[in-house]
Amino acid sequence: ARLTEDATGLITKLLIDQENTVSLIAFDSEVEILRTYSKDKDDLINTISNMDIYGATDYYLALTAVEEVLSTYVPKEGRDCVVVFLTDGFPTQSNTNQLAEFQIINSKYPYVKIHGIQYEMGIDITEELKEVSHKQYSIDMDSLKCMSF
User: Fold this and answer.
1) CA separation for the pair 135, 145 (Å, rounded)
2) Taking a C-beta distance cutoff of 8 angstroms, is the pair 2, 20 a contact?
3) Half-sphere exposure of 98 (CA within 13 A, CB side)
């Protein structure tokens, strides 16, 4: 519940800039692209509010979905393309391809920066998250709403 609250707060903050868009990808042992390049804050928040948060944590599947979304992205000069990779767990699906998928994204989309956010897992960033992100943050319930990218 608190994760949902914080994620909706982040979306609200991101969409203050009317040129920003948000894509949503849900992942556990499966992955689903929920929205791509949306500016509809109410729809995005409603989508997050209706998500079920449970199950395994497959970083590889999440990154393949990121790559799929990026395949239709058109870079704009002077604008950043940031992926917020929010996880509240270690990758529980045993898949060594997550590092390779991260390297593919880096190669195909060098303008993309993936910010790994470790949510409510303590202050030490996991090696697995370091392997699949450019910058990492350790966040608790009170600090996500203060983030700026």
Assistant:
1) 18
2) no
3) 21
**Tens digits of residue pLDDT in 87-124:** 887 887 656 789 999 999 999 999 999 999 888 777 88
* Residue indicated by tokens 């303008």: 111
Beta bridge partners, 86, equal 117
Residues 37 and 24: their CA atoms lie apart, in Å, by 9
Q: How does pLDDT run across 11-67, given as a tens digit for each residue?
A: 999 999 999 999 999 998 889 999 999 999 999 999 998 887 677 889 999 999 999
Whole-number Cα distances in Å, 104 to 38, 68, 128: 25, 12, 17
What Å distances lie between residue 101 and 60, 96, 120, CA to CA? 7, 9, 25
Which two three-digit tokens encode residue 88?
Answer: 């509240």
Q: Which tokens is 34 given?
A: 């929920």
Query: Measured between alpha carbons, how far is 9 from 16 in angstroms, rounded to an integer?
Result: 11
- Beta strand 31-38 pairing with 81-87: unpaired
